[in-house]
Amino acid sequence: MAGAVKATPLTFVVHVLAVVAAVMVLVWCISFRGGLAWDSSNKGLIFNIHPVLMLIGFIILGGEAIVSYKSLPFKKEVKKVIHLVLHAIALILGIVGISAAFKFHNESSILNLYSLHSWLGIGIIVLYGIQWIYGLIIFFYPGGNPALKAESLPWHILFGIFVYVLAIANAAIGFLEKLTFLETAGLAKFGPEAFLVNFTAIATVLYGTFVLFTVYARKEQEPDEYSYSVIESRDV
């Protein structure tokens, strides 16, 4: 039955928005902000790693991990592996992206963890890690019994969506915060860079929105394997 699942127009829109958002953040950080570097006398290049990895590595790959489980025409076990691996990569890149922000602050003599964006960011990455570890243990390896999986699945999905929505919202806050700093430092409020940052934020929000649309469009299309296992065990 998993083989019958196929891509939908919503899935196509998700992928297009992912490419658009990724290109826009790269153009911003490379063309307007000077590029990316882990070590540089220009500390702004260190910071540029943060929005690139948080958007492309964390939010886009995290969204693709969610969509992959709902749209790929593979068996559930294969989709589980893809889902798990994409989320793991997203988590690792998110941690590196946050580390880049701390490195930028430390080398620029800027205080850490003073803004709402930073507070939410730390909380989100911790919750994301907990969600990944729980999914690994309960649904993949060593794996819980069918009854535990059936009871956990709705909460796993709900918690995952909650964390992902928080990540999208915090990304928008981050774009706003950075743009505010740049405009305070003299960036033209109606200049091309300001428009690019705002449109990148809009593309990010739209991407997250269509990821959620894809999830709920598929919600009733696939039977819950764990529920079937529980029903069968009760009938024996």
What can you tell me about this protein's structure?
With 236 residues, the protein is mainly α. The protein has a single domain (2-235), classed as Four Helix Bundle (Hemerythrin (Met), subunit A), CATH 1.20.120.1770. Helix content is 79%, strand content 0%. It has seven helices and no strands. It is globular, with a radius of gyration of 20 Å. It starts with 8 loop residues before the first helix and ends with a helix.
Topology order in helix (H) and strand (E) letters: HHHHHHH
Count up the helices.
Answer: 7
Query: Helix- and strand-based class?
Result: mainly alpha
Number of domains: 1
Under CATH, the topology can be stated as: Four Helix Bundle (Hemerythrin (Met), subunit A)
Distance between the termini: 24 Å
Beta strands, count: 0
Please name the defining characteristics of this protein.
236 residues, mainly alpha, Four Helix Bundle (Hemerythrin (Met), subunit A)
Concise structural overview:
With 236 residues, the chain is mainly α.
Write the layout of secondary structure elements.
Layout: H1 9-32, H2 43-71, H3 76-107, H4 116-140, H5 146-184, H6 192-217, H7 225-235
Helix pairs in contact: 1-2, 1-6, 2-3, 2-5, 2-6, 3-4, 4-5, 5-6, 5-7
